[in-house]
Amino acid sequence: MLIKRIISFLVLLVVLFWQPSCTNIPDVSRQIKKVEVNEVQIKRYDKALFDIPLNNFQEGIKTIQNEYRPLLDVSLDDSTNIHQLLTFVNDTIVRQLYQTTQRKFPHLKSVEKELTQAFRYIRYYFPGWKQPNVYSIISGLSEENSVLYNGSDLIIALDYYLGSDFIGYRTAGFPVYIINRMDIDYLIANIVKEIANEEFINVGPYRHLLDRMISEGRLLFLLDRILPWVADEYKIGFTKENQSWCKEHEKAMWAYLLEHQLLYASDPAVIKKFINDGPFTAAFERESPARATLWVGWQIVRSFMKQFPETTFEELNEIDAVKILTQSKYKPGIY
Questions:
Q1: pLDDT tens digit string along 195-219?
Q2: I need a labelling partner for 324 at 20 to 30 A (CA). Which of 52, 125, 176, 304 fits?
Q3: Per the confidence metrics, is the pTM higher than 0.85?
C-alpha cells in the first residue's frame, strides 16, 4: 500500500508540474484577462461595396466613403476612379469570389473573438502597441499579400481564405503548396506575423543562412507567446504532414547543415535554396516542406529560451544569431 501511495504521489507531481518544454511558454492567462483592448469588430468593406446598386453607384460609394476611408482615400468626383471601381465590382470572376466569400463567411464572429484575444496578448507583451482598425475586403486575388497592415489599419482579403478545396484557386493557377495554406485556420497567425514584422522584428542584415534561420525563429517564438492556442503548422505555414516530416527528420536536417558547412553560407543563391517558398526544400527529400531550415531555426530559439526563460523578446531580438545558437544547447529531436 505504501508503494502504491508513493507511486500515486509521484504521478500527481508529474500531472501538476509537467509542462511542454519545447516552447517554455509561461502561463500568463490570468494576467491576459486584465489587459484592456477594444473588442474587434471587422468592418465589412466587402459587403458594403458590393451591396451598392450599380445603377446609382457613384452616389452609393460616396455614402460609405467616410466609414471606409482607408480603402476609399480618393476623389469620388473623379470619373476615372469611379470607372475603376465599377470595373472591379462588375468583373465576373470578382463577383463570383464575392458570392463564395459571403456564403463562406456570412459573419466573422469567431475571427473577431480570436483576433481580440491575440490583440490582448500583443498588448500584454508590448503595452505601447496601438490597436488598429480592421477591415475585410475582396481582393480579386490580385493583392501580393492576403493581410495588409500599416500601423493603424489592418486589411484582410477574405477571398484568400476560402479553403484548399475551393476550385477557383486551381483555376487561377495557384500552386498546390500555396493552396494548402489558403484556409481560415492560417489567418490569425498571418495577421500576427504581419504586425510583428512591421512593429517588433529587427530585419537583417542577413550575412549567413544562420542569421535568416534565427530571425525566423525569433518571429515564430513570438507567435508561440502571442498565439499559444494555435497549432505550430499554422504559425509557420505548413500542413500537418509538413510539420510531422520536420519532427521526424530534424536530426538529419541538422546533420546535413553541419556536414556541408551551410550555417555560415553567405552566397545568396545557396541561401535561397533553403529559405524560399516552394513545393519542397531542394537539398532535402521531395517530401520535405520548403523553408524546412527556418523550422530548425525556430527550434534553436525555443531551445535558447528554455535555457534563458527570463529573456524578454526585446532582448532576444538584439542577441546575435551565433550567440543564440551556441548558448541554446540545441539538441535536435529533443522536446
A1: 999 999 877 778 999 999 999 999 9
A2: 125
A3: yes
